[in-house]
Design a protein that fits this description.
homodimer, 7-stranded mixed beta sheet, 11 helices, 18 strands, 40% helix
């Protein structure tokens, strides 16, 4: 996608083999690329949230493995880097999935061939992510087109950032939106600011702005009213982990929007690649919910009047905070999953079926 | 209630007749009292949100009328000040109610007697507000006590600030909580931060802290997950306007918490005085929803590392914002209204009944 009109991906590999990521903690105020020179940099990039978003976390971890293989391609090294990377963030299952893909492939290779193979594999996962997201876009497009045919425009509400910044490119929840734009439909996006980290206000608003897609920022509290007032046609969000039964773990606050959509008779879609599905987990309440720093709630980062990036404290000193990063949206509230294998109902049968399909983007 | 251990009300009248209010735009960082010397100061206090909260807006407006009567007690002056005060904020009906009470009483008096009478009336409305809130506390206490008897503690979720800062004293949604504390129950409050103005983070957390009541701040997105995890026993919120049929207009985001409470089988209470009921309005969608400044969403105010109060910009430059201040919670989602006339179902019949009651706190 575009930054100031120039094509970029959220993770790029230069011709010289340098891996770099956009530091998303500084957006929308500063565009800073950070080189991942070693596995530790990849770990740090995920932990410090230079990169975030389930698919991008997975791909970044794959490059972390590749970087480790350059230094030490032993089984011990492979196991160590995977376990360190796995510990960076607990909720998104794409991390475990990508590490599983890398381990499975590399284990069978001789040590000397692992470094080159690992880089090729990681690049493959990155390319597959982009292909998957285009397929998600194609799968979701008819939904938007049907609404557009009826009313001449589509108003989509989205939560957090499941945009191209959450993936290598194109995004998951945004993929149908970009596909609709490319198809000439008039789209408008209601962007939840997504407290506490404001990924909507700082990332989704920024990427949609860069792509010239009409959007309006709202606080997370406002979506329900907009639905009551008939200003929303549908909701599309991403996912950090989908259970075998179709329950969805996604950014905190997603569940509330699903409830509001249901109460107002509006469709609620979850756009996610197959790699976000965790077939091992039946009960969504068993998904580990990351508890993040209180400072994300007590302090807010932004530009002051002099254009300096600062954090300000909103709360009384010493206020106790609970800051869970994700919540659970039961399958019963989900109209369909938008996957690279098409639109599927959020049921265990339909989910199981897509794992039987021969076509595998990775 | 207490500030640094000293008893205060959100609006105070000194023995010398000076009216002053706590400037709530500076909380929790600075405790600054502002004198209301003229009617324009009262208008300004409401418009700039030094005072906010439906009951406190009403009482402040009453003092605004009293201040106008000191200067010019004519019918024209009375009408003019009421119409200016009415225009300060559109949603809370207590404003119109208080102005109605003042006008009705003053119109029948001779001009020379109006100034003294108006001050007495305004003081009477302030005193009645406190009495009403104590009655709301008493009405809500058995609900909390029943939960406490069962599990040895009560976890209440509240949204925005319907605390003593939203009234003259004691609060509406907080009144049962303070009553429970006074009765020796172990209470803990989940405080929604309440974007965009953060009244939960800056006001509710502060006032509960000053009162020594256990509380934990969460982002507005988190309440649904906490309910899913069984960490919330009930929700209590305030109201800016209640329709004849029991629908509730309250701070944006209230509706989402009501939906989550319903989905998790939890009781959802609205604490509000009779003066928040608008018997003229049948359809909640007809209540004027205040559209507030985009800056409330794009910028956040807080203390920087040097202890200086600053605003920082979170969003990309030029981001379009929609900032409605209130939403609508249908009566069907409300377990009961907690009023000074007791706990009543949110139905037109029960609402009509309390207007037939002889006892009138004002």
């Amino acid at each position: 996608m575009r930054i100031e009109g120039i094509s970029h991906a959220a993770l790029e590999v230069t011709e010289a083999g340098v891996v770099r990521v956009l530091d998303q903690t500084l957006l929308p105020h500063q565009v800073v690329w950070r080189e991942l020179a070693a596995a530790r940099d990849a770990e740090n990039a995920i932990r410090e949230m230079w990169v975030r978003g389930a698919p991008l976390i997975g791909v970044t971890a794959a490059f972390g493995v590749a970087l480790a293989m350059r230094v030490d391609a032993s089984d011990a090294s492979l196991q160590a880097v995977c376990s360190r990377l796995l510990a960076t963030r607990p909720t998104a299952v794409n991390l475990a999935w990508a590490l599983g893909q890398m381990t499975q492939a590399l284990r069978t290779l001789s040590e000397p061939s692992r470094a080159v193979a690992a880089l090729t594999l990681a690049k493959g996962l990155a390319a597959a992510d982009v292909a998957v997201n285009h397929a998600i876009g194609a799968a979701g497009l008819p939904v938007l087109k049907a609404i557009h045919d009826r009313k001449g425009r589509v108003d989509i509400l989205t939560h957090c950032n499941a945009g191209w910044l959450a993936t290598v490119d194109r995004g998951t929840a945004t993929a149908p939106i970009y596909a609709a734009r490319d198809a000439g439909l008039q789209v408008h996006v209601w962007v939840d600011e997504t407290r506490p980290r404001n990924q909507g206000a700082s990332l989704t608003a920024w990427e949609l702005g860069q792509e010239g897609i009409a959007h309006t920022l709202i606080v997370d509290n406002a979506g329900g009213l907009l639905m009551q007032q008939g200003k929303v046609d549908l909701v599309i969000v991403g996912a950090d982990r989908v259970t075998a039964g179709g329950d969805v773990c996604n950014k905190i606050g997603t569940y509330l929007k699903a409830l509001a959509a249901r109460d107002n008779g509006l469709p609620f879609y979850v756009a996610a690649p197959r790699s976000s599905i965790d077939r091992e987990i039946q009960d969504a309440l068993c998904i580990p919910i990351e508890e993040r720093s209180p400072r994300e709630v007590t302090h807010v980062q932004g530009l002051d009047a002099d254009g300096i990036l600062r954090q300000v404290q909103v709360t009384p000193h010493g206020t106790r905070v609970h800051n869970p990063g994700f919540d659970l949206t039961p399958a019963r509230l989900i109209t369909a999953l938008i996957t690279e294998h098409g639109l599927i109902p959020a049921t265990s049968k339909h989910i199981e079926d897509i794992f039987k399909e021969a076509h595998n983007y990775a």
